[in-house]
Structures are given as structure tokens and as C-alpha cells.
Amino acid sequence: MTKVAQACSELLQTYPQSLTVLNVLGAALAGRGQLQQAVQVFDRAIQIQPDDAQAYYNRGVALRDLGQLEEAVDSYNQAIQLKPDYAEAYSNRGVALRDLGQLEAAVDSYDQAIQLKPDYAEACSNRGNALCDLGQLEAAVDSYDQAIQHTVTVAVHFAT
Questions:
Q1: How many domains does one find in the chain?
Q2: Chunked mean pLDDT (size 10), the chain, 160 residues
Q3: What predicted TM-score, i.e. pTM, was given to this entire model?
Q4: I want to staple 106 with a disulfide (CB 3.0 to 4.6 A). Which of 2, 18, 89, 98 is the partner?
């Protein structure tokens, strides 16, 4: 067990209802490849507070990594329902949809993420991948160009 996971486990003895500690523990477990345990921790957080969009999002990430793509999409959908401006959930839902071969739905999900966060380079790049899979190469290049532009802008901002 990592130091973070150990510290979280100890904190949970005192604060068993702490969503923050549960989300950190779940993320630590997922980072160590203990994905099923991470899902169980996120499920516990959701039982404690069913309107915790972060727990549903984190659960979606772990489920996707487990290859449980439809369940991951369901978790992202729940996170989006609870937090309609959750750009990262839209983007990750797009990744899971692309993995499921639902390319048009994936592009739509990336579009929603980009609409919420116009400088979201990762969503632009992922959108380009899905468009490429669809054979829409010019549109894919445009998405990749947007991703590069956003990345360069961030890099220049941090360099100055």
C-alpha cells in the first residue's frame, strides 16, 4: 500500500464519511493499478453522497481502465447530469464512446467538452482522433491544429 493510500485508510478510521479522503484513496488505488478496489471506494463515496459528481467521474475513469466501457459511460453520464458544465467528464465519455466504436457520439461528446472549455487541448486532440477514424481527415487536421494552438498558448504563458 502506498503512503497516500495508508494515510487515507488511517484518516477514514476517524472520518469514515469524508468524500475527499475517499476520492484521494480511490485515485491512489487506481494509480497503483488496483482498479477494482478503486471502483469499490468510489462506490462507497457515492453511497455516502449520491450527488458527488467527482466520485462518478473518478469511477468512470477506473471502469474505463478496467475495460468496462458501457459502465464507464454510465458513470460519466451521471457526473454530467449532476454537473452539466463538467468538461472533463464530457471528454472522457468521448474516449469511452470512441473505444466502443460509437464515433459520432464520441465527437458530439468532445464538442460539448470544447464548448464548455474552448481551450481544452486534450479534447481537441481526441476529437481529431475520432474524426480521423470517421475518415473526416480535414476536420481531424483542424482539431489537431486547435489542440496544438492551445498547447502552444499554454506553453508560452508559462514561459513568460
A1: 2
A2: 68 73 87 93 94 96 97 98 98 98 98 96 96 95 90 62
A3: 0.88
A4: 98
